[in-house]
Amino acid sequence: MSETRKETSSYSFNKRTMKLPKLPFNNGRAMLSLLLVMSIYGFPVYAAYLLASSVEPMFERVVIERFEQLFSQVPYLIAQVVVGDFGLLTLGLYSFLWAFPVVLFVGASIAFTEEMGLKDTITSDMTPILRKIGLSGRDFILY
Q1: Which domain of life does this protein belong to (predicted)?
Q2: Could you tell me the pTM of the whole model?
Q3: Exposure check for the chain: N or C terminus, fewer CB within 10 A?
């Protein structure tokens, strides 16, 4: 039994090796800035997704089906290239439907934060943390 204690005692618990790593966000202001940046880009993208997904069924009924009816009398190959599942007109309209709200909402969000002065605050708060990896606060947020 004493031999067993010797073996386990050589592998004793060392408190210094069990320390948790330091987080780069040692102040609350930097964490708040990170959350603001995530909301500047996250909320508009989510709002654009909700808008596009609610408008898509109506858009398909009103616009896409009419174009498909117009091209129903043309040869099959031309109809597929123009209004098929991967047609130029079909994908172009869907791309506009899904991309335009994202560009509009993110642009409005960035303009709003720029006018409020939040962008300068965020960049100044994030610069000390990002300097550790060779970046600055201006690299973290679009200007």
Answers
A1: Bacteria
A2: 0.66
A3: N
